[in-house]
Design goal:
With about 270 residues, this protein is of the alpha+beta class. The chain has two domains: about 80 residues, 2-Layer Sandwich (GMP Synthetase, Chain A, domain 3), CATH 3.30.300; about 160 residues, no CATH class. Strand 1 and strand 2 form a beta hairpin. Helix 1 packs across helix 4 and helix 6 packs across helix 9. The radius of gyration is 22 Å and the shape is globular. About 15% of the residues have low confidence.
């Protein structure tokens, strides 16, 4: 197959894997530039689109191309004037909004990429009260261990001592601890690791035991929009604030309320 034929076939399959808005905004304005020795170079209209595709769709594009050419593919993106016009992002502001800015992230409204919510510190405002301050601080610590903006990070080892001395919290607040009730029965008091695993934004494996115990962890580097079931667990004042954020993002409250999934986290 020729280069243009491969990319046309890929575009056709990609259009079926996402909403029309996502496809026409981010994928359609691209073009295939080069295909040699397993390297597939895709032309994009701007550095903004380049960053967005690199952080959100690169793996999907590579997987789709592999299915077409039946061999390993390494995708890269190159800004070129010959690509189509980029997405209309509205008027420019003094702060250039990019996916890797600390204060600005993009959140999927649903697993099919219904849209993206561009809002400062959504995770601080809503994910932090959902999981608790200590658990969220541990999540931020784990996230800072890798320079990633999206998706699941690699597995890496970490000691509780590093976390506790960095955050100034006790060991048991991180790992959890077994307690004994007055009647002699035992129960588990969950820690930050338990809270993060419960909502699906971190994976934790215990290595060793006793004084030599350590942990292997991986965390999700971009948190999605909360579902109605999750927002219900927040205080009323934060539920009202969340509804306000949806209105700012021009997402209908009634449409969002139709989400029945317990979470939008994709494992």
């Amino acid at each position: 197959m020729k280069l243009d034929q491969i990319w046309t076939a890929c575009l056709g399959e990609l259009s079926l894997q996402m909403t029309k808005a996502t496809y026409h905004t981010w994928v359609a304005p691209t073009q295939a530039l080069e295909w040699e020795n397993g390297n597939f170079v895709i032309g994009v209209p701007s550095s903004f689109v380049q960053d967005w595709l690199e952080n959100r769709l690169k793996t999907t594009i590579e997987r789709t191309l592999v299915g077409i050419v039946d061999q390993p593919v390494r995708v890269s993106f190159l800004v070129t004037e010959s690509a189509g016009p980029g997405p209309d992002l509205g008027p420019k502001t003094a702060l250039e909004l990019r996916p890797d800015d600390v204060a600005v992230k993009f959140y999927s409204f649903d697993p099919k990429d219904l849209g993206f919510l561009q809002t400062p510190k959504y995770d601080y405002h809503f994910w932090q009260p959902l999981v608790g301050c200590v658990a969220f601080a541990v999540y931020q610590f784990l996230r800072c261990e890798e320079q990633l903006n999206d998706g699941w990070g690699n597995w890496f080892k970490v000691t509780v001592e590093r976390i506790r001395y960095t955050l100034g919290v006790g060991r048991q607040a991180i790992t959890g601890v077994e307690r004994t009730r007055p009647d002699g029965s035992e129960y588990w008091q969950p820690g930050a690791f338990d809270a993060l695993e419960a909502v699906g934004i971190a994976r934790v494996e215990t290595l060793g035991s006793g004084t030599k115990v350590s942990y292997k962890v991986s965390c999700l580097h971009s948190l999605p929009l909360l579902t109605p079931a999750q927002v219900e667990k927040l205080p009323a004042i934060l539920q009202e604030k969340h509804a306000e954020e949806l209105r700012k993002a021009k997402l209908e409250q009634e449409e969002w309320l139709q989400l029945t999934l317990p979470t939008l986290v994709q494992t």
